[in-house]
């Protein structure tokens, strides 16, 4: 990470990523949380403007995310914790360039629907239910991750599924069906349950909202949230 002060009230942080997918994964994770806490040896005043410059190998234009220091906490050893609140950038040139690269790579893999990394925490209404995470999304479906040692009983192939997200234009309801389940190895866990969903019979308005989500055009300011439902509950929430 490179820290490049632009002036007294602005700081630029530069971060490089090996792939466009890694950049978008971090972009959606960080911006989706709404804010980030950074440790630094330099105390900044509230209101200081941050520009996070994210560069992916093979993509000429960087993605810029603007933030603002909203809280400063002194720490031992002459360090400070800075809370930076993200804003939604209006400059999409860099973001569109990264997305186009991902779409091109996905087409080379002969995938019918290019997948875009997405990091959104989702809740489910069953008591003591584990956390779910939206990990990628496409025009045809969504990949989910479960923060648990095994899949909950309601996650099974053939089960009706509903993903709800609050977007800038309003709520988005994506009905589908669980089509596969598996496990993956993650850095934070030896085995992580995952599953895939195929969207079914989307109305035209819903398909248009999904398209805006896949291209990251309709995401609201963070924190982002989602809700997942299965089985009869998923069907009842659609009526």
Describe the 3D structure.
The protein is of the alpha+beta class and 239 residues long. It folds into 2 domains: 11-102, Archaeosine Trna-guanine Transglycosylase, Chain: A, domain 4; 113-237, Thrombin, subunit H, CATH 2.40.10. The chain has 4 helices and 13 strands. It has helices spanning 20-33, 93-108, 204-214, 231-237, and strands at 2-7, 10-17, 35-40, 49-56, 63-75, 79-86, 116-123, 132-137, 141-146, 160-167, 170-186, 189-199, 226-230. It has a 7-stranded mixed barrel, surrounded by 4 helices. It has a 6-stranded mixed beta sheet with strand order 1-2-4-5-6-3. Helix 1 (20-33) packs across helix 2 (93-108). It comes from Stigmatella aurantiaca (strain DW4/3-1). This is Type IV pilus assembly protein PilZ. GO terms for molecular function: cyclic-di-GMP binding. Residues 110-214 form the PilZ domain.
